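Dear colleague,

Following up on Tuesday's group meeting, I ran the structure prediction for the two-component complex that the binding team flagged. I've pasted the input sequences exactly as they went in, so you can double-check that nothing got truncated or mislabelled along the way. The structure tokens for the whole assembly follow below. Feel free to forward this to whoever is handling the docking comparison.

Inputs:
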Amino acid sequence: MRYPASHFIFATCASLLVGCSPSEQAKAPSEAAQAFEKQLIKQFVLAKPGDVITIPAGVHPISRSLSLTADNVTIRGEGMDKSVLSFKGQIAGAEGILVSGNNFIIEDLAIEDAKGDGIKINEAENVIIRRIRTEWTNGPDEKNGAYGIYPVQTRNTLIEGSVAIAASDAGIYVGQSHNVVVRNNRAEYNVAGIEIENTQGADVYDNLATHNTGGILVFNMPNLPQPGFGTRVYNNRIIANNTENFAPEGTAVASVPAGSGVVINSNDRVEIFNNHVEDNQTANVIISSYFSAGFYTTASTADAFDPYPEGIFIYDNQFIGGGDSPDLLELQALRVAAFGINGRLPDVLWDGYVNTDKLVDGQVPAEARICVQNGTAQVVNVDGPNNYANVTTDMTAHQCALDKLPAIELDGAFFGGQ
Amino acid sequence: MRLGLLLVLLLTGCSQPQMYERENPPERLSAWQVVMIEDGQLVPRDRVVPYDLNMALFTDNAHKFRTVYVPQGQQATYQAEDALDFPVGSIVSKTFYYPKDENGQLGYHTDYSDDFGSKGLNLQRVKLIETRILVRHAEGWQALPYVWNNAQTEATLEWAGDIKPLALTDKAGNQVAFSYVVPDANQCAGCHAPNHTDGALKPIGVKARHINKAYPFLGGQDNQLVHWQQAGMLSDLPQDLALVPRNARFDSEDSLEHKARSYLDINCGHCHNPSGAADTSGLWLHQGQQDQRRLGRCKPPVAAGRGAGHGRFSIMPGEADKSIISYRMASTDPGEMMPELGRGTVDRDGLALINAWINAMPGDCSTPGH
């Protein structure tokens, strides 16, 4: 098979496709578009270290996953609203782009309407995801792909300046990784805006999470190669995450109530500070154990798994409104009973599970406490272990401080100047 | 006589498989001299040995004409669990095709070697789709997809893979229309890199447990491993074949358990193992996996997305219709289905097998606790 020179293909496609109106995109791809796709796949397959794969401006229909295994490759478009890879007609592959190469950079393009995940980076070291957009253009829908931006089992990952819209699980989802920075992104109309899961060392700051079901999630799931700990969530705006939960039943985030600002589940050593958290109608912050996630049975979870959120430090956030219309019936009833018909749940909602095996003289050890130093913000312990029998807002147990976590450093030549 | 001998020598000399530099593989399949068209048949060349598997990977019920070649004077080394260890210069080929009925319609039914024995494929009776070459270089294995032309005269290297709209007819006369997707060369690694960390490609089918079976060789039926050993292609095979692991087949007398585990092994285990691409899921389905939760029993999903299909656990004992594995096998939506690649249709036989296995499991997952 002979291919015309790549620049010829690109030039042709770009000039043809830039003018495409949305209605034209739904039609079967033109021959030029098919030739573009084939050439693009070939570039991914034959990529060598140092290659830059350019995506010209235009809407490019892609029917199969783009799979990259080479190290040191950059994929570069002309802007997240200009260079669009549209997977609306995708027939094969569980993600739009799948990457396993190290020292990977993707920037300035959009991945739309992937059948599964937008971009998945599985097991790579040194990753930069910059100014990309992943979006399901029909808005929130259970049929949308699970994750927009999805690095998993990575080391040293920077996600910045990106936009993630309408994923049926998490817009930005970092799983089982080490050393992660997620900053200056916008996540909206996803079930989870930004989710850090089973990850060791993550800084999440300067992001906007709005109109998701839950704004920013820090989770641990059982039965996985590594537990997560050490996440800082700070300087974010986490506003009005009240979108009805549209996750498929059975997924972990399907149990997240609409109106959740920050949710910590089963994770340890998490710091939440200097955020602007506003109008999240269930609660501005939820701290819960795996027992409240809807999965736990003695058969489902390996003994080694730690289901308790421990060492949580919440301070200096700006909480405005929220908690006034919780999603779950029992929380709604609790709000009315404890805080009155026009009352609101306090800013921090805790399910109240503690590891009784660790108690010293009946007290949670200092390093495992949930500490809150946030002005007048209160914690409501809903006493999940006793079916909400003894709901309390007694702050005594939370008037403490924890050692602050170190900042995540992304250094080395690859991140030079970042 | 002398001329005849010379001709034989010449023919032998040029009909052995050829090696090419990794960076410069041939555009045409025929250049490999692994499988060739002769007298209207696709046949293996000299020293190229056809083989087949016990339980095999489902690929839209495509039939597969598999061959293995080991350079003369060298041997693959037997391995009990992993793929046999092949010497540099070895070539494994797999030709995907569909049998045609009298009306030229393509059949949709399970594949075994009945179509050819070791005689070759009658091109009047089959539609050739693609031939995948796995070649062992000094640096490791390389995977190359070749796609057949409509005239069935040659297959051409397609780095980007291909899409072929097909309509198949099952035994009940029902037509199944779908897009057959030839994977691109990187997607080969999606399955053929059992250790996703090092990314090294390995053959999947040429493991002892898959090829430990009888095969109708030209000279008569024989166990494949024994035949390879006797042909000088294989060393270190245990004397006692009973010590060699063996996967089940659909049509064997093996237990439901062994058949189901064999099916999961060849269809899922290359990714779903502790170092595979799907180790992110914590679900491990390779043969030998003993931990029931790792195998999916009462295991919640991690990142299944809508592939969870409203199920709470990969396997809900006794209830296949609530089990995520069954749901994902029954789906053809790229965002839900498993395996993720390599099929556009549902493996009805495989799904029935796994459903029967799950439905026969005792117990439940319902004991809540904390």
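The CA atoms of residues 49 and 72 of chain A lie 5 Å apart.

Cheers,
M.
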